[in-house]
What does this fold into?
Amino acid sequence: MTVRDRDPLTGHQTTGHEWNGITELNTRVPIAIWWFILVTHIYAVIAWFLLPAWPGINDYTRGILGIDQRAQVEQHVAEMRDARAPWRNRMVDLPVEQIRADPQLARIVAETGPALFGDNCAACHGTGGQGGPGYPSLVDGAWLWGGSPDAIMETLRVGINADHPDTRYAQMLSFDGILSRDEIRTVANFVQSLSGISADSDPDRLAAGKTLFEDNCSSCHGEDGTGSTDLGAPNLTDGFWIYGGDDDAIFTTILKGRQGWMPSWESRLDEADRTLLTAYLLELKEAAQ
Ligand code: HEC
Ligand code: HEC
It folds into this structure.
C-alpha cells in the first residue's frame, strides 16, 4: 500500500490501491445524496409522531393526525351500504313484477344480475342460464317447481335436496329390482313417444309401456306425463330434458334414479339479492323466448 495520492486528471484522492498501474479513486459521495439522506431521516422522525408507526404488544402508536386506514375502509363500506339501502329495501318490499316494471330498479337488476348470477349460479346453470346435462335450463320456461316469482324465490331460499330444513325434495327413485330391464326399455319407449321423439311405434309395445307408466310413474309425473310442480317431477311431454331424452339417458334415469342437488341460498344471499336474481331470471327467460 502506498501513501494516498492525488489523481492528476480529476484532482480526487486515490484510495492507495493499485492494480497493474490502475489506481482506485476515492470519489466523495455527492453532497446532494447527503442532503437526501438527511431530509428523509428528518421526515421519518416527524412521521413517527404524526402517523401510526410503532407496534406495541397490544396496540401501536396511533400518531397525532389520527389517520387509520382500517377505519377509513369501514367508513367507505358503511357509506356504500347506506347508498344501496334505499333500493335494496325496495327490492325486499316490492313484488318482483313491480320491481321489473320500475325503470330504476329494472336498471339495477340488469346491471347487477349478471355478476350475481355469474358468481353464484353460472357454474351449474351456464352463463346464460341455459343449463347443461344434469342442470336444468332456467330460460326454457319448463319449470320443475313452478316459474312464478314466489316459487322461484322459495326454490332459491330452501334449495333442492339441500341441507335446509324446508328443502324441496326431488326424488326420482331407482326402479332397479322393481321393473325388469325389458320393462324399463318398454316404459322408456313410451316416455319418448310422449314428447314425439321417434320411438318404436309398435302399438302393443306402446300400450304395454302406457300401462307400466300408469302403474309406476303417473303418481309423480301425472297420468298424461305433464309432471307435478309440487313434487318437482318434470314434464315428460315438453321436449325439455335435464338428463337427456335419448334411449340411454332415459334408461339410466329409470334404472338408477335421479336426485338433482341445488344448494340453499338462504344463508349465502340475503333477500334483496335473491329477489334481484329472481327478477333477473325472469328477464333472461323472456329474452331467450
Ligand atoms: C351446484 C350446482 C348449482 C348451483 C350453484 C345452482 N344451482 Fe340451481 N339447480 C341446480 C340443480 C341440479 C337443479 C335441479 C334440481 C332437480 O333436479 O330437481 C337446480 C334448480 C334450480 C331452479 C329450479 C328450476 C325449476 O325448473 O323449477 C332454480 C330457479 C335455480 N336452480 C336457480 C339457481 C340460481 C338463481 C342459482 C344461483 C344463486 C343457482 N340455481 C345455483 C344446481 C345448481
Ligand atoms: C316419487 C316420484 C316419482 C316417480 C314414481 C317417478 N318419477 Fe321420474 N322423476 C321424479 C323427479 C322428482 C324427477 C326429477 C329428478 C331430478 O331432476 O332431481 C324425475 C325425473 C324423471 C326423468 C328425467 C327427466 C329429464 O328431464 O331428464 C324421467 C325420464 C323420468 N323421471 C321418468 C320416470 C318414469 C318412466 C317413471 C316410472 C317408471 C318415473 N319417472 C317415476 C319423480 C318420480
Summary: The radius of gyration is 36 Å. The pocket of heme C (ligand 2) is lined by residues 170-173, 175, 187, 191, 216-217, 219-221, 231-234, 236, 241-243, 250, 253-254, 258-260 (CB under 6 Å). The chain has a mean pLDDT of 93. Residues 72 and 165 are 40 Å apart (CA to CA).
